[in-house]
Sequence to fold (833 residues):
Amino acid sequence: MTTSMTTSMAMDRYAPSEIEKKWQERWAADGLYRTPDDDTRPKFYCLDFFPYPSGDGLSVGHCRNYIPTDLVSRHKRMKGYSVLHPMGWDAFGLPAENEAILRGRHPSAMVPQYTANFKRQLHLIGTSYDWSREINSSSPDYYRWTQWFFLLLHRRGLAYRATAPANWCPSCATVLANEEVEAGTCWRCGSPVAKTDLPQWFFRITAYADRLLEDLETIDWPEKIILMQRNWIGRSEGVEIAFGLDVPGVEEKELRVFTTRPDTVYGITFMVLAPEHPLVEKLTTPDKRAEVEAYVEAARRQTEIERLSTEKEKTGVFIGAYCNNLLSGENVPIFVADYALLTYGTGIVMGVPAHDHRDFDFARKYGLPIKTVIAPPGYQGEPLDAAYVEPGTMVNSGPFDGIPSEEGKTALAEYLEKRGWGRRTVTYRLRDWLISRQRYWGAPIPIIYCPKCGELPVPEEDLPVLLPQVEQYAPSGTGKSPLANVPEFLHTTCPHCQGPAERETDTMGGFACSSWYFLRFTSPAYDHGPFEPDAMRYWMPVDLYVGGAEHAVMHLLYARFWTKVMYDAGLVPFGEPFARLMNQGIVHAADGQRMSKSKGNVIAPDAVVERHGADALRAYELFMAPFEMNVNWSDEGLAGVSRWLNRVWNLVLSPVETARLGRAPETRELRRLMHQTIRRVSEDVERFRFNTMVAALMEYTNGLTRAKEAGPVDAAAWGEAIDKLLLLMAPSAPHLAEELWGRTSAEGGGHAYSIHNQSWPEWDEELAREEEITLVVQVNGKLRDRLRVPVDITEERSKELALASARVRAHTEGKQVLRVIYVPGRLVNVVVR
Ligand code: ANZ
Ligand code: ZN
Fold:
């Protein structure tokens, strides 16, 4: 046997700070990650949620989003896809503007500085974005098209202006969309949100409620997000029922309620109007007026969430009037109570205390009758001590007595419809999307008000309506946008009669900008439309979309809505923008606390890269936990991963004793490990199991180290094993892999640049097959030995080997063997007495 030493280039220390910078510059100079245009290969569009650039920069938490998508993009490139992996800035909107105000800097000066810093950090961690496609939602060549979409919605009757009670954040001095109110407080600043009446622009997302619901079935999204969207849309099938009204001086002759329980209609003992309902004022009798007005005023100051809370004590006031239950002929008193919401159903609730929890509490409190009309099993006519909300048998319900309540729902719906007293209908929790913001930092709403011609859209050729550069950009607190104080902006001419006219001074909320940005990346410089149709058809829909779970209902619902509008307008050939969605887990501080600036416990990638290198940060972020799980940062975990990279460096570059071993068992074992690792890593990437992927690479490193230490290795097999190690590591640790790729090859001269242009390794199922298995041997159920045996061993031979084992014989000697149990490929259990 001849042995020889493969000499590599001079072995030096692993110094990430030197090699990482070098390769990042080279990759950028070569445009290595430039997205190919006019490609005929299959495409893969891998997108991160549109980040808004903040002065705090990126934390290691953000990296948990950007590193995995970078890994997937690199992997797909190696798999032969043409990959679109772009980055841009959601720079308009409340987050950026609030930060500008806080820091006393104009947003137009602040944003470029912040985006530059984000970009620097994304370079630092070795991402492979195609920066030639960078976009910024606050730049006129972008928001021109956001305004264009506003006009599209307007043309299609999906943008309208209405005076409505709006969520008002007194601290941000602006109105908020329902989605932006979290537990009664502003999503940005946490102040309690109040209600106020203002003329506002809305997008009619409710017109798409059913499609937004139905198409959830067609997308590969986390179950949790789908459920949240479903609940947010909140579709309820029910019946709208009319009640007779006969109040002198009031023209309305009926009250209409929405109910999902028409089967309980004989159990109504009162009616509830929402405090803001216009009928409250008309129906209140003079003796009740003062009390009702005081109640309504107090209710207006509360938020919807507070009002709906089931824990909250139910309050209300009798308004002095009655209506008539047309079915039972009974007169029922009308109350005003804050648990009835103006914006749900008809804003009026029929009170059925026996079968609804809130109505039950209310009736108890005000001494109203509780009439059982759905009998629980075994019911004997006794009074209920709590609302019975389950199905049962109808009782005290005239002609419907004895019918099961589920059938009763249909029977009553038909009965009411036949008499013209009601109709089946569907109600949604979803409200139209309030888009007006009385704020400076957003895309101006392209509408002009002419005293003669009324409300007119800005002609398309006049877009963009430029946001003027002004000193006073902070909200004025008057409820009007700061743009109202800019005469050059405000005053314009009517596009119809050329007379003097005024511009709308509200801007669009930031979620308008992020409702179409994924299309802009397909052709970011296109100026004949928001996107170039061929590029859009090639790249869309997004194949993989990754970001935080906190966007379940805002951005992710709005973007779906706009896409459907575009589909209807013939602009795009698909109805869903994001085929697959994944949410990364959060990275907490080592002590489990949320990282926050105020706690001073934010870990920035910069410090980590400086100490251990970008590759260590990347591999650690992939390794720290399953992708979707929250996890605590661990310096030891990071150090462990860093040590692994050092081991890889040494393994690859230190001399190895080689020989021509041909088909020796050691060589077969080496190849098997290699093919098994390729298989594990490939499968784990596809399934987003990056933590086990890194574990597989670590085990592979250990296996190779053992083989190297055990004696000479076959030269060809070894060279191949190292090549594959580097290829498999290239997406996770791109700098290290590139460096080692250039320094190694079986022939010693170094591989040609770049490893990132190589093909992803394939595995051979035959070579990956395990030839031996471990057979567990027990005596009376107790583990006594483990045997390495061939995979295809027979039952007979297994038992023979088990009984022959010295460790087994020590426990069977002198005893009677009763039975030998065999589980194929797993275990032999010897039963003795
Ligand atoms: C009578 C009734 C009897 C009800 C009963 C329930 C149980 P979901 O399923 O969420 O759609 N409701 C209707 N309009 C309302 C409003 N504006 N504000 C507050 N509550 C309102 O809820 C439908 C039920 O919510 C309706 O069915 C109504 O109460 C109440 F045993 O009508 B039900
Ligand atoms: Zn005009």
Remarks:
- The pocket of ANZ (ligand 1) is lined by residues 236, 258-261, 264, 274, 339-341, 344-345, 347, 349-350, 352, 355-356, 427 (CB under 6 Å).
- The radius of gyration is 35 Å.
- The chain has a mean pLDDT of 93.
